[in-house]
Amino acid sequence: MAADLGELLVPYMPTIRVPRTGDRVFKSECAFSFDSPESEGGLYVCMNTFLGFGREHVERHYRKTGQSVYMHLKRHVKEKATGAAGGGAIPRRRNGKVFLDLELNRDFNGEDYEYEDEAKLVIFPDHFEIPLPNIEELPALVTIACDAVLNAPSAYKKQEPESWEEEIQVSRHARSLRQLDNGVRIPPSGWKCQKCEMRENLWLNLTDGAVLCGKWFFDGSGGNGHALEHYRETNYPLAVKLDTITPDGADIYSFEEEEAVLDPHVSEHLSHFGIDMLQMQKGTENGHHTDNKPRPRVSEWEVIQESGMKLKEVYGSGYTGIKNLGSSCYLSTVMQVLFSIPDFQRMYVGNLQRIFDYSPLDPTQDFATQMAKLGHGLLSGQYSKPPMKSELIEQVMKEEYKVLNWHQQKGISARMLKALVSRGHPEFSSNRQQDAHEFLLHMINLVERNSAGSENPSDVFRFLVEERVQCCQTRRVRYTQRVDYCIQLPAPFEAASNREELLAYEVKRKEAEENMRPPPEPVRARIPFTACLQAFTEPENVPDFWSSALQAKSAGVKTSRFASFPEYLVVQIKKFTFGVDWVPKKLDVVIDVPDFLDLNRLRATGLQAGEEELPDLMPPIVLPEDTRAPEIDEAAVMQLAEMGFPLEACRKAVYYTGNMGPEMAFNWIIAHMEEPDFAEPLTLPSMIDPGPSAGDSPTGAALLGNSPPEESIAILTSMGFPRTHSIHALKATNNNLERALDWIFTHPEEEEESDALSDMADTEPNDNAFSNANSHSDSTLSPDGDASGPRVKDGPGRYELFAFISHMGASTMSGHYVCHIKKEGRWVIYNDHKVCLSERPPKDLGYVYFYHRLSSS
Fold first, then answer.
1. Which residues on neighbouring strands pair with residue 478, listed in sequence order?
2. What sign for the dihedral angle of Cα 461, 466, 469, 470?
3. Rounded CA gap, 831 and 411, in Å?
4. 634-647 per-position pLDDT tens digit
5. Which of 108, 601, 634, 702 has the most crowded CB, counting CB atoms within 10 A?
6. Are both 331 and 194 inside the same structural domain?
7. Which of 54-68, 421-435, 814-828 is predicted least confidently?
8. Is 213 annotated as a binding residue?
């Protein structure tokens, strides 16, 4: 028999691999479905790619790849017989080493259930089965491979970082860092470089509190190197990147050690400048306040989750829950809402077979495949089946819940999708709680990136905002438009309808605090929705406004209106803010959000009779005064000159590619050889004269007429991108290098001849886009029907509420999310894996609201 098995496996031996370090073994879930070893058909693990497949999908993988040998894993779970060993006994196993480290959708109580695992090799297409373990009869290589697969750790543990922080060393300056007592306090927002006013890639020097920009990198994170210059002038060694500060730490760089470092005392060093990280941790521990005022949050948890009510569970298509993977409820709520929208259903579930058939060899890394998988899991009803009537009768007879517990809603695990969409993201890839609104925008961005050349379901959210800026001194105006996906409504406390009650509560609270008495019963501010909408439409001051009429900085005010209305309107209530001590705070408010909303009065009108436009000029660009010659790697220059290129051209090439080496400079030379000033000397003017301005143009047409900075073009062309395509990308993204790179990858070169504005909507949410259209007609493109404008689905501004996401807890970094969705005329609450009919949907406590447009009839 041993010889027979050996001969049987000989043709397949070259395809059987032993998992190596770095290989991920997917033995707990199918790549195309949520089938697992617990499923009726078990799970098939390819012995070459180590991907897992359910019974319905393994044949597809066999036909596509020709891989014939799979390990079939099956787990049998059953209730313990009466009198079986209990008291926390470990569940019995038939094969001791099978399924070690499996992550399945069910947590077993060892006192109630036992399970038996079985594994076997299956050879396709004849489905020849070889039971395991079978050490004596199988070739040594096959035995080793099978044992390695059975004992392999979770595929997702392989993905988790091997404690990246352990590779970073503690800075030698951390313990003895000198901090100047200069009274500097860093606000929680509004930072800019002290030397060039740049607002991104900013670093806080931990010695004197100077906020300065970092270096320019090819990933688009920009800067003029002022933080490094400051170190060279002062020798203050440590700096922290401002937008990385969380309760868990921050990114710290040592200029003296020239590497990222750890600072065990970072919380103390930051508190010196008014950033209280310890208080942030204390204030949000375990999702609750740790002070003596817990009651508002406790009440909120009960109301939003409808605790104390006997909610009826619902099953079937569209009523499948999503298992919480540990602070992943922000993802669950967003995905539940997205897949309640027909456009997302059609795109991913309607095209399920086509997406699966054309999926890449590793479907776990394909966005469309994983979206289709989750959509099918939520909408098919396959993973949301009610218990059989006989089981309910048995439960009643036994007067216990053991039998029913087995059939309770368990939900599906979105672990595979989460690993994919969060890859490379510093926040979503962690196990910490996140902001559901930010994740929604992140998902919209991913959908757009992966919808090039096909239907884009996120078009339903996109709309145009018209911004009117007026110079207060000359009264002249400028009209521009930008793309957006969500409106953010402030919660004005001063408009609370129970303001007197709030003032009385505040007096009592202060008295109780002074007299060391328990605080009074909290009072929640009640704010009318109309007040939120009014605050949104109020004029706001424009910081650092430059008036082209005055040719100088002046006071300016801005108002916003809808240039188009989306098919689905997303409304976020701005409940979260930061105190001056950087402690995140949640506004304790209730807002009477309406079921029906009419925003037609907020339709933009464009330039009005009697209004005078601001001149089409841009402010002068003043570069930092620096009489020193530019830093140029002379070795790289000489290396290029030896190839026969003009010396001045070599100097320009090295300079414009940021001293990144002769190879990058060589690419720049090849891209610019035909230019008339190719061999001209390098000149760096200190001031650029004012010229036509896209910023002050009412239509934004001048944006296309101005050439982007030559340095930015040079960086893109040195990467191998055509010059014309690079210019299009920079124009379409307002000369932002990071977004220009993203634009290039999502816009094939064959689309170069189309106007750059036609694809502005494919950038990240809140990017600026311009259009001179203000028509009110329905359109799936720009409001004027021009295919070159941002793709929007304009229509009437009348809406009906169909879903909302609610947050419980003190801040977005903690707490819990649930969502309510209106289906078949009933409100349904989705609380992780539990899906029930809602008795009292807490519409006034929501965080993100979703409206769908009403027909014009």
1. 469
2. negative
3. 10
4. 888 888 888 888 88
5. 702
6. no
7. 421-435
8. yes
CATH of the domain at 650: 1.10.8.10
**Alpha-carbon distance 410 to 107, whole Å?**
10
Nearest in space to 634 (alpha carbons), one of 650, 621, 617: 650
> In angstroms, how far is CA 840 from the centroid of its own chain?
31
Measured over the CA atoms of residue 244, residue 245, residue 250 and residue 252, the dihedral's sign is positive
Taking only the tens place, the pLDDT of each residue in 244-265 is: 887 777 889 999 988 888 998 8
Average pLDDT, the chain: 80
Residue 474 lies in a domain: no
Instruction: Verify that 329 and 255 share a domain, yes or no.
Output: no
Are 781 and 757 contacting, i.e. CB atoms less than 8 angstroms apart?
no
Active site residue 471: no
Is 128 found in the same domain as 22?
Answer: yes
Asked if 62 and 125 count as a contact pair (C-beta separation under 8 A), the reply is: yes
Q: How far apart are CA 844 and CA 496, in angstroms?
A: 14
Q: What is the CATH number of the domain that holds 336?
A: 3.90.70.10
Residue 545 falls inside a structural domain: no
| CB of 46 closer than 8 Å to CB of 53 | yes
Within this chain, do residues 137 and 240 fall inside the same structural domain, yes or no? no
Looking at the predicted structure, is the pLDDT value of residue 390 above 70? Answer: no
Residues 330 and 287: their CA atoms lie apart, in Å, by 14
Residue 422 is assigned to a structural domain of this protein? yes
Q: Is residue 723 part of a domain?
A: no
- Domain span at residue 642? 634-673
The upper half-sphere exposure of residue 589, i.e. CA atoms within 13 Å in the direction of its Cβ, equals: 26
**Strand intervals (E) in 232-383:** 238-241, 252-254, 259-261
365 and 268 share one domain = no
Do 202 and 255 lie in a common domain?
A: yes
Q: Are 662 and 640 in contact (CB under 8 A)?
A: yes
Residue 784 makes CB contacts below 8 A (sequence gap 6+) with 771, 773, 774, 775, 777
Q: Are residues 186 and 274 in the same domain?
A: yes
**487-489 and 568-573 beta bridge pairing:** parallel
- Count of structural domains within the chain: 4
Query: What's the CA gap between 357 and 828, in Å, rounded?
Result: 34
Listed residues 416, 432, 458: the one ending a domain: 458
Same domain, 448 and 360: yes
Q: Per-residue pLDDT averaged across 609-621, rounded?
A: 84
CB atoms within 10 A of CB 325: 18
DSSP, collapsed to helix, strand or coil, labels residue 633 as coil
Q: State how far Cα 353 lies from the chain centre.
A: 27
Active site residue 329: yes
Rounded-to-integer distance, Cα 209 and Cα 150, Å: 54
- Candidate list 72, 230, 816, 833, residue with the active-site label: 816
Q: Which residue has the higher pLDDT, 660 or 282?
A: 660
> Is 146 marked as a binding-site residue?
no
Interhelix angle 737-746/723-732, nearest 10 degrees: 120
**How deeply is 308 buried, as exposed, middle or buried, from its count of CB atoms within 10 A (0-12, 13-18, 19+)?**
exposed
Residues in contact with 210: Cβ distance below 8 Å, sequence separation at least 6, in sequence order: 194, 204, 227, 230, 236
Residue 721 CB partners (closer than 8 Å, separation 6+): 729, 744
CATH code at position 193: 3.30.40.10
- Enter the tokens of residue 489: 């409504």
Residue where a domain terminates, one of 648, 673, 698: 673
- The structure tokens listed for 567 are 């098919």
Six token digits for residue 227: 């933080």
Has 728 been labeled as part of a binding site?
A: no
Which residue of the set 146, 329, 650, 819 is catalytic? Answer: 329
- Residue carrying structure tokens 């569209």: 318
Q: What is the pLDDT of residue 353?
A: 94
Strand 621-622 relative to strand 687-688, pairing: antiparallel
**What residue type is 600 in one-letter code?**
N
Q: Residue range 440-466: average pLDDT?
A: 92
**Neighbour count for residue 310 (Cβ, 10 Å):** 7
- Residue 193 assigned ligand-binding role: yes
